[in-house]
Amino acid sequence: MRARPSDVGPAAGAAAGGAAGPLGAIYPGTLDCVHCGLCLPACPTYRVTGRETSSPRGRVALMRGVAEGRLSLDALAEEAYLCLGCRACETACPSGVAFGRLLEGTRAEVERAGLRRGLAKRVESLALRAVVPRPARLRAAVDLLALAQRLRLDRLARALLPARLAELVALAPRVPPRSERARLPALVAAVPPVRGRVALFEGCIMPELFGAVNAATARVLSREGFEVVVPSAQGCCGALSAHSGDPDTARALAAANVAAFAAGEFDALVVNSAGCGAALREVGHWLGPAGAGLAGRVRDVCEFLDEVGARAAYAPLPGTLCYDDPCHLVHGQRVEAAPRRLLARIPALRLVSHADPGSCCGAAGIYNLTHPAMSGAVLARKMDALAAADPDWIATGNPGCLMQLRTGVAERGLRARVVHPVELLDRAARLA
Fold this sequence. Notes:
This protein is an alpha/beta fold.
């Protein structure tokens, strides 16, 4: 058998006797990388910088060096957070390197060592621990943002604040009307004939900023003959905490969701947020057997409708559409064709391709807040491709991607409307 690079030379002792550095727990996973370089063209930060250390292969080499005690952890800290965590490298990798798990393990060690400081860290900690997982606080924060936007205080703040803070204010999403922020009822009846029963994951951000998408999802599922249950005890999926190096919070949030959905009988747990779906599919990794049962029932809404066979009649929606793959759907969940097949069922809606559908848009959770320059550079490449296609609609299935692409469309002055796929399905069905 051909030796791995880490099995020869100076690393041989560490490989044989176990890694002594702070990343020892993830060390075996780093040995799966054979340094072939097929991940390089898929990596958004490598495409921007051209630096080996800003590629998946380079970051794995740094992880291995830290685990073997040849490098200090602070040599890796900056690169660990410059990565968008898009997992495109996993799709490209012929060796099956689980880069997402390696990255989360690395970030957890960086956090334990206290190597992150500054404004970005403070914003992230406040948002992910004190606001996002707490529905009442999140609603209050969004209410305040909505008030500031109505009074145009956000514009005043951008003019008066220091540049870095002004950038953060400018990235704040537009808050929808209060009528679109209502929580779904506990039960949405199916339109006969009844085909089954599903649970719907509402999420934390979705009800506050994309309540219309949740409502459209429930209507689409109901129209397809599925009773929709929405447990009130569900909450944040924990993805953002896991990605930011806080596995304890992620596990606690995952455990709460496992408990919230344990009592119900349903055919699938349907999710309309790609990031949440990817996280829920991995609760078995976080929680062991206690989470595996729920993880196996998770389906993206487009994946589920494609599997069961959508039956609704659709009215024509004349125009062109670019579908843009959310990273955690196409790379994290390996769902690529299903949304396109569903959208292709709408008469007169013509799907057009663009040059960069499977690459990251630069949103990556709250990455656009913590790394605005790199996020903007990654978004620019995406918008170049979408501008060339010049569609009437752009569809994508993740809240962060929706916000990021809307920002890009506004900055470029494009005519396209950015929507979730279920919004188009719902609209075409209601017009039929």
